[in-house]
Every structure is written in structure tokens, then in C-alpha cells.
Specification:
Shape: globular
Number of strands: 26
Structural class: alpha+beta
Largest sheet: 7 strands, mixed
Strand order of the largest sheet: 9-10-11-2-12-22-13
Helix content: 25-40%
Distance between the termini: 52 Å
């Protein structure tokens, strides 16, 4: 059902700013946006459980099929990868024994594997298991990893402790690609047993093993007796719960029902930062949020979408120009986030002034573009968004701003998994959705913009941009890659199938009774060595 919020005039933006801060001034950004990515490593006891509140329900717990950040939070505790990323975003070995050895032409990568590793069902982790998972990621028709691994031509078992990837072309991003779901290796025995129903009882290598999932209630993991580094794992159990309401998550953290809360909403950040019984972690992110416009996604396949927004890039540019990203940040997020105008974060070694430049907020030009396109205003635009309080606030600000340029934005709130499903199937006109970010620019671009990519919900691509994206990924010279990504971002900004808006700062909180919780720029909580603080510490 479509819900329409009341029409906002410019004066309403001020009212939204007041309500967003609880009738208090905007918070001191310098006090709350500094970096504290890990809690103090106080002495912890062995045993006990931690209840972790996520802001949305994870989708399938199948690394091949999954698409949500909430799912990645759970995977981090139960499904290790060939590589991980360190706090600086660099690939480091995890199930691999070292970084890939590249052939001189860059078309072969040889990966030695960590010895003595068992899956959480007690079966052996080896090169054959790696090949089976990578081939599944690449070949399963419903895989969300296919577009991430297109550079791989074949996976070969050299010996039980070594795999070799033969590539269609050199691929600079591949090690960081294998530091996410595309590098998660699943138990061959469980894959043979369950096939595409692997998420019913997922088995990987990890500090915790899957126990149960109760839909819309909890996901339970138990400390693994088979894990190669099990002596460093402190907790016996992790219980993940999905609670979309920011206020409920924080209230339950204060009451002790939750031990860790992912995503503290900006209005709560200054309050939580002053509470003696809570610890607030914050981490600059590599993610972004934006408006995806459905240009050619019909039932999940390429097709024609009617309407001026889909047909005319001038109309999409007008929508982008109507949004003042700095004001959006101040009103919706108390100034705690960053405006974003492209897929490459400012912390990336590939960031340049050109990739970080934002289109100006220009209502007059937006109106002229709509007139040139022959659009009758107000132009009705339906915006699909998740139905949590923060996202709703963003939607209302966008609604008010776009109205000044001639857009009649109608908000369509939806539960998170239903919204993602609608996005995949093209059942939307515009969709307020983001991406949790990857260290290499290719990971933030290919999956959203290339033809047939798993998360190209807009359904839009061009051969010219696709070729440029592939060229940038194959280039091994950093300076040349940087120049190519400037061209890619310029093309993305011209077509506006994704209208980039802002980049989050990740805020995570836990009780003082916990220690060792870490959050990296990829937005993933690391709980492997987290534990309960010894009494008296």
C-alpha cells in the first residue's frame, strides 16, 4: 500500500530539524564524529552469550544468494573468507595463507590455503572445497556473486592446499572481492545435502556455528568446537535480533535486553555518548545511500519502463539538482554524516576532486530542465523506502526539497526484506537504498551499474560505461586506474540512474559489560574476540 505524507513547505524543513534533535540544537559534530572503532580490550571471562540488535532482518544466510548488510553482520561470525580487510581497508589473508601470487601477465592468481582448517561440521577445508564454492558463486543462475567474479575464467585445484584462478583479464580488485561474500567457502557436504536450500542449515568455517533461525525473531550461533582459532573465542553464544526502530534498540540496550546495538540513530548519538553505562563506537564508512531510479528493470529483467523519469536524463538530473545534500545531512542526521555524490569514498586512494565533486543545489535549473523535457508539473514520483524512523525522515526531507523544483514525491514505506525484493523485481519507480561499500572502487560500481549485475536494480547500463568499468578493473597501475575512475564517475553522474546523497558514519553501542567489539570501515562488527568483562575490571 502506498502511504502519502503531508506536503512539506520549506518551513517544514526547520520543523523536521527540531524534531530530529529532540528540540535541541544540532550536536557538536567534533565531539561525536571522531573515530573510535573498537572497544577497550578489558579482561574478559570465557563463556556467556551476547544479544546483538540489527536494524533490519537479514536475508538468506547463503553467501551465494545474500544481498543485505544485516546478513553480512551474521556471516562475519560464522562464514570466513579467503581474505579479510584490515582497518585500513587492505586485503589480508584469512582462509588463504597469504596474498595471491600473480603471474607476470596478471591472468593467473595462485592462492595457498591455511592448513589444518575444518568446517563447522567437522569436514576438511581444502582446495576442492574452495573450487566448489567459487564455482557455485560464479555459475548458480540466482547467484548474487556472478557479476563480482566475472574476471574468473576457471578455478583449478593445484593440490589440496593450493588453488589457481585463471582469469579472462587482469583484475586488480579481485583480492578485496574475495574478502567478502564471494570469498566465503561453504561445506561441500552441506552443499551436496541442501543445494539451493543451503541457508536452512548453513555450514562454513568460523568462530561460531549456526544453530537456528526463527523468522522475524532471532538467529542463534554457538561457539564452534572445530574452529582453528577457537582458543581466542570468548563467548559461547551469539543471538542476533532485528529491530528496525532506533528508539526500541537503544531502550533495550539500556535495560540490558541487548548487549550490542548496530546503528545508533543520529538523534541518539550525543545522548549515548554521555551515558556512563554504554560505550559508543564510531567509524567513518565507505558506504553510500542514494536514490535508484528504475529505468529498465521489468520483473527483474531488462525491459522498457514508461515515464519521463525513466525516459529522459534531464528529468533525473532535475531531481538530483533539487536536493541540497548539505542541508539533508544537517536536518536528517544532525550533521553527523557526509554528503556523497559518487561511489568512491573520500578515504579511498582512488578518490580525486573530480570523483568527490557534488552537483550544485540549483532549483531554478531543475525547473528549467523539467520545462525543456516538456514535463507537466508537479510530476508525481513514488519513492520506495524502508519503514524505519531515520529513513522516513530522509524521505520527508527529499519530499520537501523536490517539491520546490516541481516534483510530487509520494513516499512508499516498506519492511526491509520486502523493499529489497521489490527492488530486485523492478517493482518501484525510485528506491532510497544504499550499499555498504567495498575497499576497491570496482566493488562499489560493477554490481550497481553493469549490464546484468546482481544489484543493478535500475536495469540501466551502456556498452561504453561497461567497457570503461572493465578497463579500470583490469588496470594494475594505480595512477591510471584513478584516471579511469574519474571518467566512470563522470558518466554515472550524467545518467543519474543512481542519485548519490550521503555517506554514513557508523555508530555502534554496547554495554560496559562487554569488551572487544570492533567495527571496520566496511561496516562489519567483529565479535570473534568479544567477551563479557570480568567483574571488578
Amino acid at each position: 500500500m502506498t502511504t502519502r505524507f503531508g506536503r512539506c513547505a520549506p518551513v517544514v524543513l526547520l520543523a523536521l530539524a527540531v524534531s530530529a534533535t529532540g528540540c535541541s540544537p544540532l550536536v557538536d559534530v567534533e565531539q561525536t564524529a571522531g573515530q573510535l572503532r573498537s572497544s577497550v580490550q578489558a579482561p574478559t571471562v570465557r563463556g556467556g552469550e551476547a544479544v546483538i540488535a540489527l536494524d533490519q532482518e537479514p536475508d538468506k544466510l547463503d553467501p551465494t544468494l545474500a544481498t543485505t548488510l544485516a546478513g553480512r553482520q551474521v556471516f562475519s561470525s560464522m562464514c570466513e573468507k579467503l581474505y579479510d580487510v584490515d582497518p585500513a581497508g587492505r586485503a589480508v589473508p584469512q582462509l588463504a595463507a597469504e596474498l595471491p601470487r600473480s603471474s607476470p601477465d596478471g591472468r593467473e592468481l595462485t592462492i595457498p590455503l591455511r592448513p589444518g582448517v575444518l568446517f563447522n561440521d567437522g569436514t576438511e577445508f581444502d582446495a576442492a572445497a574452495v573450487k566448489k564454492s567459487l564455482d557455485r558463486h560464479r555459475e548458480l543462475p540466482s547467484s548474487g556473486r556472478r557479476s563480482e567474479l566475472t574476471a574468473i575464467d576457471s578455478v583449478e585445484v593445484v593440490d589440496p592446499a593450493t588453488v589457481r584462478l585463471k582469469l579472462k583479464r587482469p583484475s586488480a580488485p579481485l583480492p578485496t572481492v574475495l574478502a567478502d561474500r564471494a570469498g566465503m567457502i561453504m561445506s561441500p557436504a552441506k552443499l551436496d545435502e541442501l543445494g539451493e536450500n543451503f541457508s536452512d542449515d548453513p555450514v562454513c568455517v568460523g568462530p561460531f556455528r549456526f544453530v537456528e533461525r526463527v523468522a522475524q525473531d532471532r538467529i542463534v550461533l554457538q561457539r564452534s568446537e572445530f574452529y582453528y582459532d577457537r582458543d581466542r573465542v570468548r563467548l559461547d553464544r551469539l543471538i542476533y535480533k532485528a529491530v528496525s526502530d532506533d528508539n526500541i534498540r537503544i531502550a533495550n540496550l539500556r535495560s540490558g535486553e541487548f548487549d550490542v546495538v548496530w546503528e545508533v540513530g543520529p538523534p541518539d548519538v550525543p545522548i549515548v555518548s554521555r551515558e556512563d553505562d554504554l560505550v559508543l563506537l564510531n567509524q567513518p564508512s565507505i558506504q553510500y545511500m542514494g536514490i535508484t531510479v528504475n529505468i529498465g528493470n521489468v520483473d527483474g529483467k531488462p525491459g522498457h519502463v514508461d515515464g519521463p523519469l525513466a525516459d529522459d536524463p534531464r528529468v533525473r538530473e532535475a531531481l538530483s539538482l533539487s536536493i541540497d545534500r548539505n542541508t539533508l545531512n544537517r536536518i536528517a542526521f544532525n550533521g553527523l554524516y557526509q554528503p556523497a555524490c559518487g561511489p568512491i569514498p573520500p578515504t579511498s586512494e582512488f578518490a580525486t576532486p573530480a570523483t568527490q565533486a557534488c552537483p550544485p543545489h540549483d532549483v531554478n535549473r531543475a525547473r528549467r530542465l523539467l520545462a525543456e523535457a516538456g514535463v507537466q508539473t508537479p510530476l508525481r514520483v513514488e519513492l520506495l523506502l524502508q519503514n524505519d524512523s531515520t529513513t522516513s525522515r530522509v524521505g520527508q526531507v527529499i519530499q520537501a526539497m523536490a517539491a520546490e523544483a516541481g516534483f510530487d514525491v509520494v513516499l512508499r514505506p516498506s519492511e526491509s526484506t520486502s523493499a529489497i525484493s521489490a527492488g530486485k523485481k523492478g517493482r518501484f519507480q525510485t528506491f532510497l537504498i544504499g550499499w555498504s561499500g567495498r575497499p576497491d572502487p570496482d566493488g562499489n560500481i560493477t554490481v550497481m551499474h553493469q549490464a546484468g549485475a546482481a544489484q543493478n536494480y535500475s536495469g540501466y547500463s551502456t556498452p561504453e560505461t561497461d567497457a570503461l568499468i572493465e578497463q579500470a578493473a583490469a588496470e594494475r597501475n594505480t595512477d591510471r586506474r584513478r584516471q579511469l575512475y574519474e571518467q566512470v564517475v563522470q558518466q554515472l553522474q550524467q545518467r543519474n540512474n543512481v542519485i548519490y546523497l550521503y555517506r554514513q558514519q557508523y555508530y555502534t553501542a554496547h554495554t560496559k559489560g562487554m569488551a572487544g567489539v570492533e567495527v571496520y570501515p566496511d561496516g562489519i562488527m567483529r565479535l570473534k574476540t568479544a567477551g563479557r568483562v570480568e567483574s571488578g575490571s
